[in-house]
Amino acid sequence: GEGLPQALAQRWSAVVDAWEAAGLSRVGLLNAYGPTECSDDVTHEVVGDAERQAAAPDASSVMSQVARDAAAVSAAAGTAAIGSALPNTQLYVLGADVLGAGETGVATNSGVATNSGVATRSGVRAVAAQAVVGGEVPVGAVGELYVGGVGVGRGYVGAARATAAAFVPDGLSGAVGARLYRTGDVVRRLGDGRLVYEGREDGQVKVRGHRVEVGEVEAALLGAPGVSSSAVVWSEGGLTGFVAGADEIDVEAVERAVRGRVPGYMVPGRLVAVDALPTTANGKVDRRALAAQAAGGVSEQASSSATYVAARTAVERVVEGVWREVLGRPVRVSREADFFGLGGHSLLAMQVALRLQNVFRVDVPIRYLFEALTIEAIARRLVSEYPGIERVAAAVIRVQNMSEEEKQDYRKRIETRKSRSNTNSNVQLN
């Protein structure tokens, strides 16, 4: 459920290009997009394919220019393109004025949308559904993504109004009884037909697979002590909350209050106290300015984790070191801090799991990172699964504290031992 950052996609492409240059098989990275309401995936994009084809010697100059323009738009959005429609799927990028009158469709309280204009079962209440009758926005412009085709669901069971709002009669395809699903996602169609995800039309963001209404988080912040105004933005794969008040705000107290009001995945990874929220010329909160501040680091009073509590065991210290590397944190991390609250997401969780496997030489499923959210919880889980892991962690820490000369000597001793016993060492040298 996470968007693929453009920077990560470029790093992957560079790695597989190097593999291919070395004579190894190319490993493709598939960026898939799709809402549950449409049987999951509706687009696929093999990362880097369009750019490679445009750069091929036999590519036309027009094709190359279109690809360069598309790459520039995708880079500006910060996320990789999500590709184009899968077979038997229609995608429309539509503006805000595309919905026509409601007499062409209804939705019943069984959650099934129809185009008959009447409810066919006694006792079933009909709710008018506006039909899509407008055209698509121009190439390069942003609009809401509507999905049609065989994968579109029938609606929400027992929720007639929600069904009528999201599953609307299709006035574009000409197919009798066809419906479109309004994703609420804002996209931009590139010159080569691919789509780039730009954000949510309704203020929703995806956090660890959960759909989060930014307004709900802002309301929770407003209920914290001393907060008179708040704003939440999505940046760098996580939520950043900005709060302002008449007096100085204790951001740690705000964080504690918010944790008592909303689920953990809705708590902003960073909370920033400012004198006042920036506004646009018409007096609205300037979310672009806040997003830029969140992406570039903050200078006001900020909290990015709970109060620091030092690691207590060797396993906890090793896990903390891995977290710091993956999250790009040069300073210490509390053993009680939430990985996702620190800006972690599913891709980073995969990196943590892989590095822990390399260090400890044991299986570390990625689900551990979703079930045990803190350093302390992950370490406890590892110790319960692998009773001897504390000794391995202690050895890892000893090696990490060695000088380069001592590490070289240690490597030699390990290699000698391996040759004698034909077993693998449990220690990963850095």
> Helicity level, as a percent range?
25-40%
Cα end-to-end separation: 33 Å
- Average pLDDT: 77
N to C succession of SSEs: HEEHHEEEEEEHEEEEEHEEHEHEHHHHHH
Tally the helices: 13
| Uncertain regions spanning at least 5 consecutive residues | 101-128, 298-302, 423-427
Which geometry do the CA atoms define?
Answer: globular
Largest sheet: 5 strands, antiparallel
Strand content: 15-25%
Number of strands: 17
Task: Provide an overview of this structure.
With 430 residues, the chain is of the alpha+beta class. The chain is built from 13 helices and 17 strands. It has helices spanning 6-21, 49-55, 61-77, 160-166, 214-222, 251-259, 287-296, 314-327, 346-360, 367-371, 375-385, 389-400, 404-421, and strands spanning 30-33, 43-46, 84-85, 89-94, 106-108, 113-114, 126-128, 142-149, 167-169, 179-189, 195-200, 204-207, 210-213, 229-235, 238-244, 270-273, 301-303. The strands form five sheets. Strands 4, 8, 9, 10 and 11 form a five-stranded antiparallel β-sheet that branches. Helix 2 (49-55) runs antiparallel to helix 3. It starts with 5 loop residues before the first helix and ends in a 9-residue tail after the last helix.
